[in-house]
Write a structure and sequence with these properties.
Order of helices and strands: EHEEEHHEHEHEHEEHEHEHEHEHEHHH
CATH architecture of the largest domain: 3-Layer(aba) Sandwich
Low-confidence stretches: none
Shape: globular
Radius of gyration: 21 Å
Number of strands: 14
Strand order of the largest sheet: 3-4-2-1-5-6-7-8
Number of helices: 14
CATH topology of the largest domain: Rossmann fold
Largest sheet: 8 strands, mixed
Length: 344
């Protein structure tokens, strides 16, 4: 008999993002393992339907009121119509937005509810944010954290820790003409380090008389700045061709880092706060990436590895060996172990 699984997430496919891809790839494996899956998310665009059967799962959407405090109450009211869906689900798994589910935790005290905490969204952390995570920790049956840094900064104990996954066959490096020195693949925001990368590009030109070719796959608040110094493409679903055509990867988020590893690219990462530093350094792959905070030092490292690609080879090979084990099947195993339906 199929187990009924309900995912709740703020955003989902076709919206582009790490959480969305995490759920999209995970559900492929779970469908093969005979789960019946439903998902509730925000209707992020007027062109998106409020309900659709999409790639084997039922997707329900609500309009998201961007009103502080009262917006959450409106969300709770909108979610009331999903009470029958919650009631019949064997497992409810929330991705980040546990506050959406909070009233239903009280309505269904014996329902098996779990959460995945996909990372941080602010710095410095507010006390209310830490309190919310600790409250969540006490109300869920188990949770997965994307990154060990979460335990340190939020003062919680994770049941499972992951760093993401890749389908390695999709990222096998192919012999093709290199036309970029570096690829940046992420949102153009402070969290992704785009400002530091752009500053290092300026330094390379002014201090070293080196103009590097960078392609940017993403969009956000720094797009105008990126347009002046790089070739911007906006968000793209298939990043592989751009990785293939680039020498190194400017990425500092887990999913993009793993994708760069799978494509045998050296990762050059940056950070602008202490959480992001731990995000990068409290990982099993910290020795295989180049991490710098200061744009001057970042520019120096970029030039060094572009001039001496042989120095990066041991890191690239070690990262590639490790990432081959980070499959979506392994991710599904992690979820099933958390839910108590798979033996450890």
């Amino acid at each position: 008999m199929k187990k009924k699984l309900l995912f709740i997430s703020r955003l989902y496919y076709p919206h582009v993002g790490g959480v969305e891809k995490h759920i999209f790839e995970l559900k492929k494996v779970l469908l093969e393992r005979d789960y019946e899956i439903s998902l509730v998310a925000e209707r992020h665009d007027v062109g998106v339907k409020f309900f659709e059967s999409q790639y084997g799962i039922n997707v329900y959407r609500i309009s998201y009121p961007k009103i502080r405090f009262f917006g959450l109450i409106i969300i709770w009211i909108k979610l009331l119509r999903f009470i029958p869906l919650i009631r019949k689900s064997d497992i409810v798994h929330v991705h980040d937005v546990f506050l959406w589910y909070l009233p239903f935790r009280l309505l269904f005290p014996f329902k098996n509810v779990y959460m995945t905490f996909h990372g941080y969204s602010e710095f410095p952390l507010r006390k209310i944010t830490i309190l919310q995570k600790k409250l969540t920790n006490s109300l869920v049956k188990g949770w997965i954290g994307v990154g060990e840094f979460i335990e340190k900064w939020y003062g919680v104990k994770l049941d499972k820790i992951t760093y993401g996954a890749v389908d390695i066959k999709d990222f096998l490096p192919k012999k093709t003409k290199i036309i970029y020195d570096a690829v940046f693949a992420s949102r153009l925001s402070d969290q992704t380090g785009i400002a530091e990368y752009l500053e290092s590009i300026k330094i390379l030109k002014s201090k070293y008389d080196t103009k590097i070719r960078v392609v940017v796959l993403g969009d956000g608040e720094y797009k105008k700045d990126a347009d002046k110094l790089t070739k911007t493409k906006g968000f793209v679903r298939d990043v592989v061709p751009f990785f293939n055509k680039s020498k190194i990867a400017f990425v500092n988020r887990y999913l993009a880092i793993l994708e760069a590893f799978a494509n045998k690219k050296l990762v050059i990462a940056t950070y602008n706060n202490e959480i992001k530093k731990d995000y990068l350094m409290m990982t099993p792959f910290k020795d295989w990436i180049v991490v710098e905070k200061d744009p001057e030092k970042l520019a120096e490292k970029i030039k060094y590895y572009l001039d001496h690609p042989e120095k990066a080879k041991p890191m690239i090979e070690a990262a590639y060996k490790w990432v081959q084990g980070q499959t979506w099947e392994k991710m599904a195993d992690t979820y099933e172990e958390l839910w108590g339906v798979k033996k450890k």
